[in-house]
Amino acid sequence: MIEAPATSASNNPRGLAFAEAKDYLAEAETSGVGAVIVPESVDSFPKPILRHKRPRAAFGHLLHLFNRPYLRHDGVHPTAVVDPTASVDASAAIGPYCVVEAGSTIGAKVNLMAFCYVGENCHVGEGSTLMPHATLLRDVTLGKRCEIGPSAVLGHAGFGYYWDGEKQVHVPQVGGVELGDHVDVGALTAIDRATADTSRIGDGNKFDNLVQVGHNVTIGKHGVFASQVGVAGSTTIGDRIMVGGQAGFADHVTVGDDVILAGRAGVMGELMEPGMYGGAPCMPIRTFHRVNTIVPDLPNVMKRIKALEKKIEELESKP
Amino acid sequence: MIEAPATSASNNPRGLAFAEAKDYLAEAETSGVGAVIVPESVDSFPKPILRHKRPRAAFGHLLHLFNRPYLRHDGVHPTAVVDPTASVDASAAIGPYCVVEAGSTIGAKVNLMAFCYVGENCHVGEGSTLMPHATLLRDVTLGKRCEIGPSAVLGHAGFGYYWDGEKQVHVPQVGGVELGDHVDVGALTAIDRATADTSRIGDGNKFDNLVQVGHNVTIGKHGVFASQVGVAGSTTIGDRIMVGGQAGFADHVTVGDDVILAGRAGVMGELMEPGMYGGAPCMPIRTFHRVNTIVPDLPNVMKRIKALEKKIEELESKP
Amino acid sequence: MIEAPATSASNNPRGLAFAEAKDYLAEAETSGVGAVIVPESVDSFPKPILRHKRPRAAFGHLLHLFNRPYLRHDGVHPTAVVDPTASVDASAAIGPYCVVEAGSTIGAKVNLMAFCYVGENCHVGEGSTLMPHATLLRDVTLGKRCEIGPSAVLGHAGFGYYWDGEKQVHVPQVGGVELGDHVDVGALTAIDRATADTSRIGDGNKFDNLVQVGHNVTIGKHGVFASQVGVAGSTTIGDRIMVGGQAGFADHVTVGDDVILAGRAGVMGELMEPGMYGGAPCMPIRTFHRVNTIVPDLPNVMKRIKALEKKIEELESKP
Predict the structure, then answer these.
(1) Residue B318: per-residue pLDDT
(2) Average per-residue pLDDT for chain B
(3) Which residues, 6 or more positions from B254, have their beta carbon under 8 angstroms from its beta carbon?
(4) pLDDT tens, B17-35?
């Protein structure tokens, strides 16, 4: 009896894993997992197997079968506080302890799970989900089928101050935030509202947890931003970017389409050439890999330089 | 008809932008923005313009005109849970689903927007705002006109553990947090309470989102901390510091007045000299910039060293 | 009269501090602190003193005496929303505005402070505490006496996407999260649920604020993770790890027991040898320290290389 998808390392005797590469096949053999989806090329295996042309894809299908949608409290929960000027579609689910402020609209089939805050003048597009404690502070528009993670914060004031000679003074942030369709925002991720105009996140972007997106940032379509990435204010990013964890973008920077950044990469200036980059300030990934082999060897390099200097001195002192 | 402030890149025909430098003037010319505030020196422009000595300042004034204050639910919302021993000023606004615990005081004109948690023995100074889901866990004192962002957490236990030979044991954190006046704390930012005494944040400090300030940290006045900065425990920072995104301070470090840190800078030891620094461990910014031109060239540098070694060998082997 | 534990730098005349090293003794002498616990070797001191073999341990005892437990609202608060299929132990405290969803169990003496979200199929072990706005999204199991900080998020979907040729598609994340006993999770920290199986955090691990732990991560026992650390998906970590602030682990990496990582260290590949490491990619700490003295000197190193090249040229051009 198979009960659940599992990893090749699992100890679940009722789990079904997949294994394509040799090491994962070996792992599945020795782990406690019950059965394995394997490539068609595998002839014999000491456990029950399912042969498939593309085991990973088959496993993905299995995951879909076992997936369950997020919990919905259909209708408007009696504890929800909805401003009379807000408009809530009859098919939307407004969960316990949600607050929807004046002038906001909640589209068809939207799911606000619990403790969601939808501030003034916010618009949540059809089929979108807000997870517990998500905040749309104000002037935030979400497209269709967006997923906003727990305790994410959209629409907080951009971080703009100037020094008046005595103190830092906040520049009013009167703009908003606009997300396209199918944008996923991770837990505890922040996207600030613009100073003027709109911080604009195109269709299909995916943000992991604890990401920061500053005010007046513009991001194209279908980007992927791993955890703890920071994008400073007024930076513009093209389509299909992929950003590794803890990477950062300086402010007022322009980045083109099809750029891939390794974890911890730092973008300090214009970066228009498609390709993969690493390091801070970032450089082509091959250069970065070579630099990474040299840096820990620098003490040794210094010795070689000293040896050279000594030898030169000796040569120079030769008659 | 002008309806809103806008950026020079805006496509809003009813937007009013400002442009000082040449490239922004060029951008405003080709974008869809309706009108532009320009320097007095600009004679002709293909769009309606307003001439001003300082376009940026004029635009700042415009932003103030268009700014609207955060939403207030005047009085104590019927859903708020306020402990009978807490003291709430009659002019304060306690929004829906706020909790105010025993012994706390809420000053005049304070605004708790929604879902705010004000724990035991917390004091919120006159005119301060707590945004949705903000938490003052306990023993937190805010000065006047502070703004605490959505899901910010003040007063969580400092991260102090010791190894007892078998496990990590938490050192009780019995101190508090104290903010001066006009301190802004961004969304999802944490300021921990002290082991003993107080984590002390002086007047006028501004923190962006996702910043961490550890226990027993002391910060002077008027500092600016960009997103994702981390300040480890017991570190002391002077006045008017400016800290770029993702920078970090080690614990038990002392930093003087008027220090500026580039993004991702790392302060590992005492840093008393005013000036700008970059890198980790940080160095004067000019040195950092020069280092940044050398690092990606290291593979090349290694070739030059190898060439030198070969040439020396040849010279040495000469009779 | 002594009223509170204090630091040696405190200005509290009713504070009792400890001082072991010379500089702290000097600090305590000149600060406003009322009295000091000092080593037995200290003969005279200008303030009231308590002599003790181990002042730090004595101070730790003092902290325990002054510590007070987190606030509990005994019983189920009338504003709590508890699903009829959830099971809540009679000795548990469910505070104001907590939501407990279907199929969840809340163990003996558990404390949900306020605004806690316990999603479907979550299990909170005996004596655990959830602080305000903590979220267990779904399929999360906590052991005994865990402490989950304010706005921490456990059980959010792992960040797994694949490109289908047109857009990023989310891989369903059908697994859960399991914490052992005595695990502390800081404020605003995220631990994602697994794609399949379980993200597994062993007994006694301690996480600071703003930490990210990805899907299918496995961590042994008694680790300590400082603030803003990121652990990417499917990484496996051994026992007793200590991780400095802002450090990061790549995905699918294996780390052994008794590894110590300096702040900002980056683990990019297997790391099985116990010891201390720094840098990114990380290297033994002694190497790292030497590299750190060379890097800011690189402009100078380049000058030395140029000088060598010139001298070689001169030598070569000699007849």
Answers:
(1) 81
(2) 96
(3) B235, B236, B270, B271, B272
(4) 999 999 999 999 999 999 9
Nearest to A71 among C81, C101, C170 (CB): C101
* Mean pLDDT, residues A167-195: 97
Q: Which of A7, A96, A97 sits opposite C196 (nearest CB)?
A: A7
pLDDT class for A224, splitting at 50, 70, 90?
very high
Query: Which residue intervals of chain C bear CATH 2.160.10.10?
Result: 75-286
Confidence of residue A318 (pLDDT cuts 50, 70, 90): confident
Contact A213, A195 (CB under 8 A): no
Give the gap in angstroms from C-alpha C14 to the nearest C-alpha of chain B. Answer: 11
Determine whether the interchain pair B316/A315 forms a contact, defined as Cβ–Cβ distance below 8 Å: yes
Q: Which stretches in chain C have pLDDT values below 70? A: none
Q: Give pLDDT, residue C269.
A: 96
A32: DSSP letter:
S
- Burial of residue A29 (number of CB atoms within 10 Å: 0-12, 13-18, 19+): middle
CA distance, residue B264 to nearest chain C CA (Å): 10
At B141, list the tokens. Answer: 């004192």
What's the rounded Cα separation, in Å, for the pair C128 and C136? 13
Residues 6+ apart with CB under 8 A from B47: B28, B29, B33, B34, B35, B36
What fold is seen in the domain A4-66? Answer: 3.40.1390
DSSP B138: S
Residues of A in contact with B132 (CB under 8 A): 99, 117, 119, 135, 137
The 10 Å Cβ neighbour count of residue B267 is: 24
Sign, Cα dihedral of C92, C95, C97, C98: negative
CA distance C67 to B240: 34
Dist. CA A196–CA B16, nearest whole Å: 10
Name which of B116, B130, B298, B306 to mutate to probe chain A: the one with the most chain A Cβ atoms within 10 A of its Cβ: B298
State whether C133 and B156 contact (CB < 8 Å): no
Mutation target to probe the A interface, by most A beta carbons within 10 A, among B8, B24, B27, B63 is B63
Residue C253, pLDDT score? 97
Rounded Cα gap, residues C155 and C59, in angstroms: 38
DSSP type of residue A158:
P
CA distances from A5 to A34, A55, A170, B111, C267 (A): 10, 13, 51, 49, 29
Q: Measured between alpha carbons, how far is A176 from A189 in angstroms, rounded to an integer?
A: 16
Stated length of chain C: 319
∠ at Cα C174 (A185, A32), nearest 5°? 140
Q: What is C75-286's CATH number?
A: 2.160.10.10
From the candidates C215, C222, C252, C289, give the one annotated as an active-site residue.
C215
What are residue B50's DSSP bridge partners? B37
DSSP for C150-211, written as a single string: TT-EEEEEP--EEE-SSSEEEPP---EEEE-TT-EE-TT-EEEEPSSSEEEE-TT-EE-TT-
pLDDT band at A12 (very low <50, low <70, confident <90, very high): very high
Please indicate whether residue C215 is annotated as part of the active site.
yes
State the Cα–Cα distance between residues C260 and C248, nearest whole angstrom: 13
CB A191 within 8 A of CB A200: no
How many of the other CB atoms lie within 10 Å of CB of C292?
18
Question: Is the bond leading into B5 cis (omega within 30 degrees of zero)?
Answer: no
Where are the CATH 3.40.1390.10 domain residues in chain B? 4-66
Contact B97 C115 (CB under 8 A): yes
Catalytic residue among B156, B182, B215, B222: B215
Q: Integer distance in angstroms from the first to the last C-alpha of chain C?
A: 89
CB of A313 closer than 8 Å to CB of A295: no
pLDDT for C207-256, tens place per residue? 999 999 999 999 999 999 999 999 999 999 999 999 999 999 999 999 99
